[in-house]
Amino acid sequence: MQYAKNILETIGNTPLVKINKLTADLPCLVLSKYETFNPGNSVKDRMALQMIEDAEADGRLKPGGTIIEGTSGNTGMGLALAAIVKGYKCIFVISDKQSKEKMDILRAVGAEVVVCPTDVEPEDPRSYYSVSKRLGEETPNSWYVNQYDNPSNTKAHYQSTGPEIWKQTEGKITHFVVGVGTGGTISGVGKYLKEQNPDIKIWGIDTYGSVFKKYHETGIFDEKEIYPYVTEGIGEDILPENVNFDVIDGFTKVTDKDAAVYTQLLAKEEGMFLGNSAGAAIKGLLQLKEHFTKDDVVVVLFHDHGSRYVGKMFNDDWMRKMGYIE
Ligand SMILES: Cc1ncc(COP(=O)(O)O)c(C=O)c1O
Question: Could you state one GO biological process linked to this protein (predicted)?
Fold first, then answer.
């Protein structure tokens, strides 16, 4: 018989799926690394399990412990699934701009969810960075995950996502395009791919309101770049240790409107019901058109599933209210 011993064994080995209509004007082959096939419906299952196993191995996470993390939802889902299988409790701190579905989903898998305001400085005691840290200090037998600076995040992608993409494309990949939040995905996959072939170009997708693109181009952390934005999962107002700028060739920024519109288009044109950062990623890839030639094989990674956005990007009343559609 062929079966997984528990749900965690089904993480990884996701398919590579060709994009057809939305990329019809591009000269190259465009393939999507389709991460919603993971059991928590996102790429984050990979790094969540890696972070837990590394913390178990060196004693940071002890039997019966409580896992504490600031998470926009997907990392929380991955951590919660692993916590259920392995017998830990979870407390997740989430910012109030995240979709209600994401909060409900985390509660559905047994986590306690604490909601914090988005529009405060990271140093503010109410911010979700500060509240996660404080809970980590106050809760007995707890472990604060810190996906932003935890090297196991990048390691998961270096050890699984990167090698899968290399193998699935038979080493023919020429460009990798992906949204950047904590940086774990781009840094782990980027490092692995460049070690196989240093000519592979690694492109990050950023949002307006985030510091990454300007920092990469100038080395300046410009606070004037920081303002509230709608796109979920990518862009930051901090520089996470998991963003390895050395393996990134460039960033392109996608507007909130374009990210939302292209999230709908992926569903309607390709039958790909995906999250908001997938819309940003495919639009960003189209913006990079002049970088691609006929024989190129471009891989874009899609992080999460559309079900988490039914109240927003898949709700036409919300889309009209935001001025994104007529
Ligand atoms: C929906 C979504 N897209 C993109 C990202 C960015 O991925 P990474 O944190 O690996 O840079 C995340 C993670 O924060 C996410 O949840």
Answer: cysteine biosynthetic process from serine
